[in-house]
Amino acid sequence: LKDRLGKAFLIVYVNPIALGVLAPPGYFGADVVVGEGQVLGSPPSYGGPLLGMFAARAEHLRRMPGRISGQTVDAEGRVGYVMAFQTREQHIRRERATSNICTNSALCALAATVYLAALGPWGLKQVALLSMERAHRLAQEVSSIPGYGLAFSGPFFNEFALRCPDPKKAVKKLREAGIAVLPPEEVGKAGLEGALLVEDTERRTEQELARFVSALKGGTG
Fold first, then answer.
1. Tens of pLDDT along 110-130?
2. pTM, whole model, 2 decimals?
3. CATH topology of domain 121-218
4. 46, 63, 102, 208: most buried by Cβ count inside 10 Å?
């Protein structure tokens, strides 16, 4: 891939669990790799805590930024900017700083380290395979329900967008079945009108998957 891109700077976003079965980005020439490490042993906890991952080739290490600001919106829809990446060292070394260790980040990083050490390479591969197999099986089952179908035909790991005739009604049925679902209006912000975002992991049981399908079937009448 890097050979075809020529001098382009290649940045890759990854799901670290997926790397249990996929080739690492460095294999095809990625210059920088970023991702969300919350899936490595940290509970969702209503959106946090989160663990950002930022890796680069050795020749780019001294060019890594000391600060990264992200754009967001407040409760009233106004655009705002937040400090998404900040280092302690940066207050002394400023733009030359490269470390990014603070109390919360270090705690999440420790949890991720213990999680990966406990799994090992074989365990990480098994987690990835289980997540992928169950997500694909769930996608196949819900796609057989009249009016439902995958929003995209391309390959996916353990997340997929599901088209449905009435997203609000589907969300209501799923929540009544005890299943957490992202509101349709939030999905719409990503340009996916009339769809739900579904993720399956190795932690979901056969009974939970059956309850998901049953809830949607009950909402199609």
1. 899 999 999 999 999 999 999
2. 0.80
3. Aspartate Aminotransferase, domain 1 (3.90.1150)
4. 208
